[in-house]
Design a protein that fits this description.
The chain is mainly alpha-helical. The protein has helices at 2-12, 17-28, 36-48, 73-84, 91-103, 110-137, 143-183; strands at residues 15-16, 52-59, 65-71. The model has no long low-confidence stretch (mean pLDDT 88). This is Transcriptional regulator, PadR-like family.
Length: 184
């Protein structure tokens, strides 16, 4: 998820490592853990693979130089691949991955946004089926467990409602674009 996030931010503007870390913490801190021990090795790896390149070296405050990175064409392709991939992973990790992808939705075309929303909706619906099935098998034994059970269902239902509304809005946007092109 860190690679996806870093490439997405670098796609928007060139950044040096410290600024990239700040942006990641600001926008994605609730989804991923960001530390210098991960950022600089990631930048080195992305540069070695040709996904990013140093576009400027600035003098740093402490005398050392600061590298400003920009994304390459190969990096943009890699970012799109990471945006559209759907790895098999835990429920918690898949939620975080989707939120990171959603942050970059404006950088995708409408069809790809719909595709990602459809996938996430299906995952949420499967999770709801699983929880409802497990509810029959397992009954919470105290009020705290019951509260957590209710909270999980509430959060999931809220997410499904939000995803459905977003999907419907995008569908209307597509229909509006289609009707505009028909009028010409």
């Amino acid at each position: 998820m860190l690679e996806l996030s870093a490439l997405g931010l670098l796609q928007r503007e060139p950044l040096h490592g410290y600024r990239l870390k700040q942006r990641l913490e600001l926008f994605m801190g609730s989804c991923i853990s960001v530390n210098y021990g991960a950022i600089y090795p990631l930048l080195k790896r992305l540069e070695e693979r040709g996904y990013i390149q140093v576009i400027l070296e600035e003098a740093g405050d402490a005398g050392s130089s600061r590298k400003v990175y920009g994304i390459t064409a190969a990096g943009r392709e890699r970012w799109l691949y990471k945006m559209l991939e759907q790895p098999q992973e835990s429920w918690v990790k898949s939620r975080s991955r989707f939120l990171i992808k959603y942050f970059f939705f404006s950088d995708l075309n409408l069809q790809n946004r719909l595709l990602l929303l459809e996938y996430r909706l299906r995952a949420c619906e499967e999770r709801m089926k699983y929880l409802n099935h497990k509810e029959v098998e397992y009954v919470p034994i105290d009020s705290y467990q019951l509260d957590i059970w209710k909270r999980e269902n509430f959060v999931l239902e809220s997410e499904v409602k939000w995803l459905s509304q977003t999907y419907d809005n995008l569908q209307q946007e597509i229909e509006g674009v289609d009707s505009l092109s028909e009028d010409r």
